[in-house]
């Protein structure tokens, strides 16, 4: 496999040798531009930071805006996603018939490179150009789809393959996606979440190379990873090269949770990795191929080439705010941050906010009380058939969720009582189970029926990658005891993944 690295040190040296006078003027103009952007709410939607913690992020996620809305710039530090590094992969597409595996998240800066040029923006924009520096701040929003950018550069894109939620990202979780034709370009769109989840021979007929560019959230059961697996499997079986254009992992600082056991493998978990793997899809693509996890003959691994174009200047611990929602029920930074923990409630009777204005930002139930805030549940485009539809939840809405539409006079007090959780928080699952147990004790003397917590135990086990977590919660194990039970497997995984990392590890 082939990994393309960052620009050479010589380029950096040339920049550093610019005259002191021009450098000072450039820095001053950048500073003024950044201040202006913050005041006018102009943004690249990319946030980087050398530290982490609720205090550092409070200004970013307080009263969460929807992803894709304009947000204040939080740092002058910028990185370049793989898709924007045209000089690294356009030569591999020259004269080739290309299929894109993309959705609405495959966005690039419309000013990241000239249509007639394959030179990367950091090479093209000289540091001694004041106009270029100012323009870089103002126009670096990622607002152009990769499909349009490649067509502008005369790439022969002959088909599109779309994952769960569809090419436009507007289908609900688990909702089947039909194949179609892109109205703008007339290019056929083949669904990989309908009649098949794996590219068929007909879909791949006449294809020379596949370009994969989808934003992930760094959680094993988020299905874009499984789509990547099947794309690699089908491509390598038919001698088709694959290029993965890498993007940051918004949960990249975490490596946690049980490692999946093979007997619990499914489309929401196909690989022996933990719930939070701390890797990008580019790194995972290398691991899938390197560990030979594909269901193909060993000789087939030599039939095709995997190329990963890394994110330039990316730090795994940096905070990254996505330019667009990766799926309908993850509308903002907070939902993405809570997703690794709250998704486990999909195997229980607890609502995580599907069918409300706070998907993956609350936990609630019609009878078992999680908070004083009353939240109505109704079907919508993102959740056509939500859990507890047409009921009112007694919910806890996590900190920094927008409280403006909440019912009840104490909405804001309830909403902002606690800080949001991070990573995989087992205590939240145990607390919810305890609330059901206490509720059932109270109503046991009455004629009311008890409420079942694990309503979909098999699905919960698939999310966990084992059945041990469910049994540990039922047995009353503490968070520390549960977390200790998977440390040995986590250590093995951390060691195995080292060979495939493209960015500095957090260990």
TrEMBL record:
Q: Give a yes or no for keyword Transcription in this entry.
A: no
Query: Where do transmembrane segments lie in this chain?
Result: 12-34
Task: Kindly indicate whether the keyword Membrane belongs to this entry.
Answer: yes
| A Pfam family reported for this protein in Swiss-Prot or TrEMBL | NamZ_C
Stretches assigned to the Peptidoglycan beta-N-acetylmuramidase NamZ N-terminal domain: 138-332
Query: PANTHER family, alphabetically?
Result: HYPOTHETICAL 460 KDA PROTEIN IN FEUA-SIGW INTERGENIC REGION [PRECURSOR] (PTHR42915), PEPTIDOGLYCAN BETA-N-ACETYLMURAMIDASE NAMZ (PTHR42915:SF1)
Protein known as: Lipoprotein
Record organism: Alteromonas marina
């Amino acid at each position: 496999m082939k990994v393309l690295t960052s620009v050479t040190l010589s380029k950096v040296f040339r920049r550093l040798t610019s005259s002191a006078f021009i450098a000072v003027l450039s820095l001053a103009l950048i500073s003024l531009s950044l201040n202006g952007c913050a005041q006018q709410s102009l943004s690249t939607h990319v946030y980087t930071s050398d530290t982490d913690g609720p205090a550092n992020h409070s200004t970013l996620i307080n009263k969460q805006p929807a992803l894709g809305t304009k947000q204040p710039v939080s740092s002058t530090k910028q990185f370049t996603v793989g898709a924007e590094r045209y000089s690294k992969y356009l030569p591999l597409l020259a004269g080739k018939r290309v299929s894109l595996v993309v959705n609405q998240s495959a966005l690039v800066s419309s000013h990241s490179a000239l249509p007639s040029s394959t030179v990367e923006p950091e090479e093209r924009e000289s540091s001694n150009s004041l106009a270029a520096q100012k323009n870089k701040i103002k126009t670096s929003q990622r607002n152009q789809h990769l499909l349009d950018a490649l067509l502008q550069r005369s790439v022969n894109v002959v088909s599109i393959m779309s994952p769960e939620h569809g090419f436009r990202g507007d289908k609900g979780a688990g909702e089947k996606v039909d194949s179609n034709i892109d109205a703008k370009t007339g290019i056929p769109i083949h669904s990989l979440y309908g009649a098949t989840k794996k590219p068929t021979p007909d879909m791949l007929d006449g294809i020379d190379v596949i370009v994969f560019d989808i934003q992930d959230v760094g959680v094993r059961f988020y299905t874009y990873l499984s789509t990547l697996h099947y794309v690699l499997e089908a491509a390598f079986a038919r001698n088709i090269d694959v290029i993965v254009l890498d993007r940051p992992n918004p949960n990249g600082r975490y490596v946690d949770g049980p490692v999946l056991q093979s007997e619990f493998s499914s489309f929401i978990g196909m690989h022996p990795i933990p719930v939070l793997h701390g890797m990008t899809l580019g790194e995972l693509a290398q691991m899938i191929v390197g560990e030979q996890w594909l269901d193909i003959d060993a000789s087939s691994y030599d039939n095709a080439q995997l190329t990963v174009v890394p994110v330039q200047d990316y730090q795994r611990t940096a905070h990254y705010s996505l330019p667009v929602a990766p799926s309908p029920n993850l509308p903002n930074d907070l939902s993405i941050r809570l997703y690794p923990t709250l998704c486990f409630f999909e195997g229980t009777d607890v609502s995580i906010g599907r069918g409300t204005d706070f998907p993956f930002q609350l936990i609630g139930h019609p009878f078992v009380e999680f908070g004083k805030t009353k939240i109505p549940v109704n079907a919508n485009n993102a959740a056509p058939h939500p859990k507890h539809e047409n009921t009112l939840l007694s919910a806890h809405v996590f900190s920094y969720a927008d409280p403006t539409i909440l019912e009840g006079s104490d909405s804001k007090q309830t909403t902002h009582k606690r800080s949001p959780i991070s990573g995989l928080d087992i205590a939240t699952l145990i607390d919810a189970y305890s609330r059901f147990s206490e509720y059932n004790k109270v109503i046991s003397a009455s004629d009311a029926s008890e409420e079942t917590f694990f309503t979909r135990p098999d699905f919960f086990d698939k999310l966990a990658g084992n059945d041990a977590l469910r049994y540990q919660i039922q047995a009353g194990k503490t968070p520390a005891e549960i977390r200790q039970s998977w440390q040995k497997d986590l250590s093995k995984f951390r060691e195995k993944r080292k060979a495939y990392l493209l960015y500095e590890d957090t260990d």
